[in-house]
Amino acid sequence: MYRKKADAEVYSAIRQKMEALDLRDTPLNPNIEPNPESRLFDPSNPDRPPMPEDDPVSHKLMQTVDGKSGPSEWQQSGAPDTTRNDEWKHSLPKDKNGGIILDQKSAVHLALLNSRDFQREKEDLYLSALDVTFQRFQLSPQATLNNEAKSGWDGKFHSGLPANPATATEKRHLSFLTDGNVRWLTSSGGELVAGFANSFLWDFNGHNLKSTSNSLLNFSLVQPLLRLVGRAQTLEKLTQAERTLLANVRQMEQFQNGFYVKTVSGRASGEGPSRNGIVGASGLGIIAGTPSGRTGAPRADGFLGILEEQKRIQNLESNVARLRESFDQLSAAFDAGRITSRLQVDQALQALFNAQSNLLSSRAAYQSRVDAYKIEIGLPPNVPLIIKDPLLDQFSSADPSATSIDLQLSGILSKIRNREIPLTPETLTEYIHGLQGLEKPLFALLSVTQNDIKSLAAILPVRKAQLAELLKSPDTALLSIEPERLNPATLDQKLAKFTDRSVQQAKDLTAVGDGLKAIAAEVQNTNFETARSTLIDLASRLSGILLGASLNQTATRLEIAVLPQVDVSEEKALEVAKENRLDWMNARARLVDNWRKVDFSGQHLRNALTLTVTGTTGTLDANHPVSFDARTSSLQAGLRLNSPLNRLADRNDFRDAQIEYQRARRDYMLFEDRISQSLRNTLRLTHLAELNFELRRAAVQVAIAQVDLARLRLDEPPKPGATPQFGATTARDLVSALSDLLDAQNDFLSLRVGYDVLRLVLDFELGTMSIDHNGLWKDPGAITESTLSHRIPKWTEVSAAPVHSTSNQTAQAHPPFRQAAPTVR
Predict the structure, then answer these.
(1) Model's pTM, two decimal places?
(2) Backbone dihedral region of 270: left (phi > 0), alpha (psi from -120 to 50 degrees) or beta?
(3) pLDDT for 682-702, tens place per residue?
(4) Cα 505-508-514 angle, rounded to 5 deg
(5) How far is it, in rounded angstroms, from Cα 579 to Cα 572?
(6) What is the pLDDT of residues 127-157, one digit of tens each?
(7) What is the phi-psi region of residue 54: left when phi exceeds 0, alpha when psi lies from -120 to 50, beta otherwise?
(8) Spatial distance between the Cα atoms of 508 and 442, rounded to a whole number of angstroms
(9) Beta carbons within 10 angstroms of residue 169's beta carbon
(10) What is the C-alpha to C-alpha distance for residues 561 and 752, in angstroms, rounded to an integer?
(11) What count of other Cβ atoms lies within 10 Å of the Cβ of residue 592?
(12) 672 and 581 in contact (C-beta within 8 Å)?
């Protein structure tokens, strides 16, 4: 009963503050009871939880301590599974095959359900509201009622030896006493106490029965008149508790937004509610981080970091596939006598082995990172998860199917090259069919690239506009970037080049298919060694087509990538943040709290004049316990003056409050400076990323061009009459170019993901961030001064009187405090 009553009062107090702040459209749920789908849910009785499993040696001290036996309930053995609840596993998001899928939505959902940090912050908000209920109770009439019954026996000589001992008798008596009072501390500082007492007494003296009853009414009033001005003294604790709860509701709202930031991007996003109201006096600090590495963008952690690591592994897999394709081509050239030194082939093979080793290490590190993330969102590390999110697709610069095709092609090619396996019509047919089976997925890969080229043609106007803006940037001139690198006209040339390459690769693939059909028609009549050489040549050409198609697709998708616009001046950003940031509102309120304590402490140094009034009235008739007689009444009134002769402790408290206020002023100045610093840093990193994005894009294109040049040397026909040989550095150049391409792709990936992190952090720092009821960010897309003007929350002022209405009509009378953003992330 008491738990439920406390919950009702606490949730009512929190809802009052949410209504006062117009937070009806927020996903904030103040209920601290974990959802049954949560790992934190406790199915046992919260009022009588079972004893948990104890340490055996420590448990002996509960059973017997210093030779004394403990209570019987301490003697039992604890249940070993009080902290375990496996029912939550049944509600995990699963696919049709039973695999547990973790995408961005489910990651945030599971974190909200299972995060210990999030649960603790909700409990701190609850405790803050619990303090408010106590302070409200202190200023409301408080009634008490007591009943006491006594039965006694007195011996004949209980009161001493009587004058006539023969007449002395034993006495028995029975009494009932009822007393109660009502105490009321008024807002003006007056304390009124009204009491009532009633007693009934029955005396059994031998065969005589004597009964008496008495009643008494009394009251007292104490009203301070000078010092503390009554209200300041009385309302201080309630005012502070209410303001602290208001601040904590704001802080919890901001923490829930920041919880998404931390869960998705891994960026520190500030503290949650605090029972004492002391939260982040100096601000959040620099959330976005500082420029580092070649990209200058922050490295993503959290869920985005895991997705980025997935993509890095895919890039490694593509790199392994490209190295294998290059090795196959070099091996074929060596077999054909176009390479006289085995060293070049071995260099490619060594690079392939190194890449495969790196891939294994990266996969192991990825699993460790996923396990750490599971613990961060409240899941045990042994829960098998499948990390999969469509968000990853926008970061893909190549189709993963190319890696699968490469594995199949490499397997077939290794069999063809294995001269220990004798060629027969059957095995030759098997190899031909295997290579022919790769034509369809290769054409499908080319078809995907052609669709990418169409997407590039559609996005071309936007890309041209962005390049034109970057050409005007002062940083472009400062860095001495060649205008040709940012010339919008080059995009048309690139589009034409990508189209021509795709068309030529389709023709080459058709030619290889015709070659396979020709050799298939002559299986029974061909020379097997000649057929082996022909198949090796055709397979190598397929490998070259696959590598070229993969590179062309990567180059095309690079040009498609567009960054959402961020265009906000530092002055506008600071203005919007000051208007909308909840922690900034709390910082202003915290400064006023310290200012109020100066006045509050100074009141103690004044003269104290107190008015006291007391009165009583009782009954005379023993048989009428409610017949009060004015003749039994008394009334007293007085004034008490306490002059300021001994105020050393109060003086010190006053100086302490003054110094604390000055410190609070400096903390507030630091708070504003930290926000300004962080916003300037985030905007600086964002503008840096926009320009660096084009530089990283160009770096990948240059790396692709280097790979193309190295590949062209493999495809160059020998000059008439000359010995067909490659240069001494052909293999090394190709391996180096592929390594540079991997690094450039990873840098571009980090910058692309880091830019999303920056936009998220900027939206959070501006105080305009909005999340839906699933806890997901409503991605605003472009963040400009014009878009910000439409996304400013309409915060309302808190009225002096408590808001008690929680009806639907009241909720509908206020509009949502934020406008919905177009995209949910």
Answers:
(1) 0.83
(2) left
(3) 999 998 888 888 888 888 888
(4) 145
(5) 11
(6) 999 999 999 998 889 899 999 898 888 777 7
(7) beta
(8) 11
(9) 13
(10) 9
(11) 12
(12) no
